[in-house]
């Protein structure tokens, strides 16, 4: 690497064509709150990789350094067909990097921005793959904490039965001690708040069920075209996650079987205890609802207002409010 163009001295876009550690940077593929991701060539093995570099201005921030290092270890520890494999992580010239499989395709954020709501079959296929990745992470005692469309990479699948192969990436928020509130108190970028679970907001302990909530927000968006809560400012959005009832998806997608609303309501329950116990249990219930099967394993103690039957002239069920 030329000394006057080291990554810590250069703007990220200035790195194209340069060598970082053993990698030659080919082009920028995306950037998030704490890193820039490049397509690069591993010069030792002559293979294409995705090279993630910590934003230079954050490299000296201990919190971010720890999170970045932890992300690489966590992701490398899990061998799963729907989790992006990590090849190497390290530090060069004061810049932290992580090399992982380059996933040709788009992330779900771009897909939704371009194509809008997805067909229910596509949405459930994608959800099932992300769910299996998350449940595997949970089996390793790891909580992802940042499930969002930008962290779901959609590559071409193998055949018409599997039109897409989905990878979950970015375990940067998995460290249990780095709570959402921890990040906000140091005044750093947290990322989108569209998918964050109520217990993450209030700083309560989180487990895999916070990923159930976030996955449900993502599934909701793939069906409705937007996340469950859309508010003008962050405070209102955080409030909505904690206290507001998500609007029924069937209001925006009349083609959906009515049972889908109840499944999403359960996955989006404010209390983790009221949610599905795993991501795959959520997706199984979603699939059953889509084909109109009654959900056998679970009956809601208090169905959301939109799901309850209305008997003309009959008494209002106790404890339930009438919605306009
Ligand atoms: N392994 C990968 N292969 C291809 N593209 C990737 C890979 N990892 C990340 N990307 C792309 O880089 C973008 C930025 O990633 P990241 O820094 O994690 O930010 P964010 O997750 O907030 O979007 C992602 O949205 C994705 O489009
Ligand atoms: Mg990411």
TrEMBL record:
The keyword Protein transport does not apply. Pfam families: Pkinase (PF00069). The keyword ATP-binding applies. Gene3D superfamilies: Phosphorylase Kinase, domain 1 (3.30.200.20), Transferase(Phosphotransferase) domain 1 (1.10.510.10). ATP binds at residue 52. Residues 23-290 form the Protein kinase domain. Keywords: ATP-binding, Kinase, Nucleotide-binding, Serine/threonine-protein kinase, Transferase. CDD domains: STKc_PknB_like (cd14014). InterPro entries: Kinase-like_dom_sf (IPR011009), Prot_kinase_dom (IPR000719), Protein_kinase_ATP_BS (IPR017441), Ser/Thr_kinase_AS (IPR008271). GO terms for molecular function: ATP binding; protein serine/threonine kinase activity. Its EC number is 2.7.11.1. Residues 304-324 are annotated as: Disordered. This is non-specific serine/threonine protein kinase.
């Amino acid at each position: 690497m030329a000394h006057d163009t080291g990554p810590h001295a250069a703007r990220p876009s200035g790195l194209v064509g340069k060598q970082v550690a053993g990698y030659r940077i080919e082009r920028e593929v995306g950037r998030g709150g704490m890193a820039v991701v490049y397509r690069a060539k591993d010069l030792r093995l002559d293979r294409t990789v995705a090279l993630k570099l910590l934003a230079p201005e954050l490299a000296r921030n201990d919190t971010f350094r720890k999170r970045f290092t932890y992300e690489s270890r966590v992701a490398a520890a899990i061998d799963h067909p729907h989790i992006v494999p990590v090849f190497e992580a390290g530090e060069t010239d004061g810049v932290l990097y992580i090399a992982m499989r380059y996933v040709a395709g788009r992330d779900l954020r771009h897909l939704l921005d371009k194509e809008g709501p997805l067909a229910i079959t596509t949405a459930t296929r994608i959800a099932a793959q992300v769910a299996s990745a998350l449940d595997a992470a949970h089996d390793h005692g790891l909580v992802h904490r940042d499930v969002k469309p930008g962290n779901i990479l959609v590559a071409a699948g193998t055949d018409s039965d599997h039109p897409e192969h989905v990878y979950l990436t970015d375990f940067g928020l998995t460290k249990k001690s780095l709570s959402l509130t921890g990040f906000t108190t140091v005044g750093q970028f947290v990322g989108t708040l569209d998918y964050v679970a109520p217990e993450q907001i209030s700083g309560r302990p989180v487990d895999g069920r916070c990923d159930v909530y976030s996955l449900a927000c993502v599934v909701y968006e793939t069906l409705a075209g937007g996340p469950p809560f859309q508010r003008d400012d962050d405070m209102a959005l955080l409030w909505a996650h904690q206290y507001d009832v998500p609007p029924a998806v069937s209001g925006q997608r009349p083609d959906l079987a009515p049972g889908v609303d109840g499944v999403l309501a359960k996955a989006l329950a404010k209390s983790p205890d009221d949610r599905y116990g795993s991501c795959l249990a959520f997706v199984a219930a979603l699939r059953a609802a889509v084909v109109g099967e009654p959900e056998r394993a679970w009956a809601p103690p208090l169905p959301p207002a939109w799901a309850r039957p209305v008997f003309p002239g009959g008494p209002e069920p106790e404890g339930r409010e009438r919605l306009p």
